[in-house]
């Protein structure tokens, strides 16, 4: 009897043990399903698989599973590999680097939501409010990354690390680039590479962590370019049969079904994720449209965006003209014969918002912009580099080294000194400019300029100078000997044209006296 009693006890314990194992496996399976649902952020529902009735009168599940598009799944893989490695390395360094990384983490999530939205709606017009509203959070993240860099400008080593990220984060703006977003990402990557090289040089043989971190950031941009090349080669892929962007609902905004009871949960399969958003019915196509790349230009107009609006007269106001209330649209006023609309007045320069000065290298091109006063020095490193100077006043600019080309555009009272240029030096749309070449230059172009003084070294004796729509141009050439002064030669402004033998011959006017 004792043996039989012990056998019964052991059998009961084994049955209890197996029951606990089954319950533990069920709980683990549910937990894994929940984690996967939260990680993907997609709203899916389980498919109807037979009738698993728990009690009499229960209905089988008739909802169908909605799969994510391949472009979103591939983006999730990119985030789980390249982005995660960069975020982990940033967290290890901490401080402002981690602060930038947290903003990029939010930017990546917002971009994933945007790609998912594009797979469900058709391409909206550039004036669509829903489209611009969806872009604003991404723009704010990119601006925040640059603000973090600006706050730490005093720390040179940290500033170079933050600048590498700030210059490269613009690659995530590929979603509005058509038709070649991949080269755009490569351009942003090259911009970041300038500061990446500085970081590698600064921490060489000192600290391997920043070196590994900056390499992971470049690897993230490389992974982004590979993803875009595979799924969005000519621009962000939209759904031509999708709905209107104004009616789009982000996944997860709908309410989830009630959870099953405790008794039913023990015997049924794991709980399904939340249901998908309602399918948006596509309305008739609108007449408007436009390129996505021009959206940012529309947003950046500021106050000038209302320049095309006109004043509404009393006859067109519905509260003063009851006859218009029954109509659907206000009729256009008859145009006066021979009368043109007044031109839109330009904003005075004093009211124009000043842009911050900028001196930076993008790919192989130096940009020197918006300087007022002071001195700017640019150190070129090769003949492939070029220099573009724009909207500078009362500034002295020195460009050292042998480089490809230089252009001065819309400058006033600017003195520029360069060494040697391989291709062409240009001065356009400028006034009261002094331009000196201490080395050599094969050609000089002056277009729409007034009051330009050019000083050439003796090495520029064979230079070719082209002028168009210019006045008060003086060219001074250095003498053959060091003790000789510059020889000043004014460029003729008056031209005379005559027909000789059926051909028009033009020559400068010479004043004798």
From TrEMBL:
Stretches the record annotates as Disordered: 239-293, 314-356
- What SMART domains does the database record attribute to this sequence? CARP (SM00673)
GO CC, sorted alphabetically, is: cytoplasm
Query: Which residue ranges have biased composition labelled Low complexity?
Result: 251-269
Recorded hits in InterPro entries, A to Z, give:
Adenylate_cyclase-assoc_CAP, Adenylate_cyclase-assoc_CAP_C, Adenylate_cyclase-assoc_CAP_N, C-CAP_CF_C-like, CAP/MinC_C, CAP_C_sf, CAP_CS_N, CAP_N
Which protein family is named in the record?
Belongs to the CAP family.
Q: Which residues form the C-CAP/cofactor C-like domain?
A: 356-493
A biological process from GO = actin filament organization
Role, per record = The N-terminal domain binds to adenylyl cyclase, thereby enabling adenylyl cyclase to be activated by upstream regulatory signals, such as Ras. The C-terminal domain is required for normal cellular morphology and growth control.
The Swiss-Prot or TrEMBL record annotates one GO molecular function as:
adenylate cyclase binding
Extent of Pro residues compositional bias:
270-286, 331-346
What Pfam families does the record point to? CAP_C (PF08603), CAP_N (PF21938), CAP_N-CM (PF01213)
Q: What is this protein called?
A: Adenylyl cyclase-associated protein
Determine the domain of life of the protein's source: Eukaryota
């Amino acid at each position: 009897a004792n043996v039989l009693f012990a056998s019964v006890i052991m059998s009961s314990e084994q049955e209890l043990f197996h029951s606990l194992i089954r319950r533990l496996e069920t709980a683990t399976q549910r937990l894994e399903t929940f984690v996967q649902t939260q990680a993907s952020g997609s709203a899916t529902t389980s498919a109807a698989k037979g009738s698993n009735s728990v009690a009499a009168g229960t209905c089988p599940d008739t909802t169908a599973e909605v799969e994510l598009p391949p472009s979103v799944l591939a983006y999730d893989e990119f985030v789980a590999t390249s982005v995660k490695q960069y975020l982990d390395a940033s967290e290890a360094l901490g401080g402002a680097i981690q602060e930038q990384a947290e903003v990029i983490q939010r930017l990546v999530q917002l971009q994933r939501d945007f790609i998912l939205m594009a797979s469900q709606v058709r391409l909206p017009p550039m004036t669509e409010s829903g489209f611009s509203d969806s872009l604003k959070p991404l723009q704010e993240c990119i601006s925040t990354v640059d603000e973090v860099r600006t706050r730490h400008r005093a720390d040179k080593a940290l500033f170079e690390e933050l600048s590498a990220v700030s210059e490269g984060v613009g690659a995530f703006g590929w979603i509005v680039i058509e038709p070649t977003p991949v080269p755009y990402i490569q351009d942003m990557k090259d911009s970041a590479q300038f500061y990446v090289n500085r970081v590698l040089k600064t921490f060489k043989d000192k600290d391997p962590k920043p070196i590994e971190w900056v390499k992971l950031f470049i690897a993230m941009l490389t992974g982004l370019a590979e993803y875009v090349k595979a799924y969005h080669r000519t621009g962000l892929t939209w759904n031509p049969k999708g709905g209107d962007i104004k009616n789009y609902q982000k996944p997860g905004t709908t309410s989830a079904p009630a959870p099953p009871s405790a008794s039913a949960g023990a015997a049924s399969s794991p709980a399904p994720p939340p249901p998908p958003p309602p399918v948006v019915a596509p309305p008739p196509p609108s007449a408007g449209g436009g390129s996505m790349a021009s959206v940012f230009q529309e947003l950046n107009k500021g106050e000038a965006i209302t320049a095309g609006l006109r004043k509404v007269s009393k006859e067109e106001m519905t509260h003063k003209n009851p006859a218009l209330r029954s109509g659907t649209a206000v009729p256009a006023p008859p145009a006066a014969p021979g009368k043109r609309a007044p031109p839109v007045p330009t904003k005075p320069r004093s009211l124009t918002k000043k842009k911050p000065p900028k001196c930076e290298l993008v790919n192989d091109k130096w940009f020197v912009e918006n300087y007022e006063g002071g001195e700017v020095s640019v150190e070129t490193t090769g003949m492939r580099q070029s220099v573009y100077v724009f909207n500078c006043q009362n500034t002295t600019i020195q460009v050292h080294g042998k480089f490809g080309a230089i252009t001065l555009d819309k400058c006033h009272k600017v003195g520029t000194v360069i060494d040697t240029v391989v291709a062409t030096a240009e001065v356009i749309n400028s006034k009261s400019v002094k331009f000196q070449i201490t080395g050599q230059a094969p050609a000089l172009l002056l277009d729409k300029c007034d009051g330009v003084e050019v000083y050439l070294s003796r090495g520029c004796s064979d230079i070719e100078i082209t002028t168009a729509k210019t006045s008060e141009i003086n060219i001074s050439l250095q003498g053959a000997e060091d003790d000789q002064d510059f020889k000043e030669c004014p460029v003729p402004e008056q031209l005379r044209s005559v027909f000789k033998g059926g051909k028009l011959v033009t020559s400068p006017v010479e004043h004798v006296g």
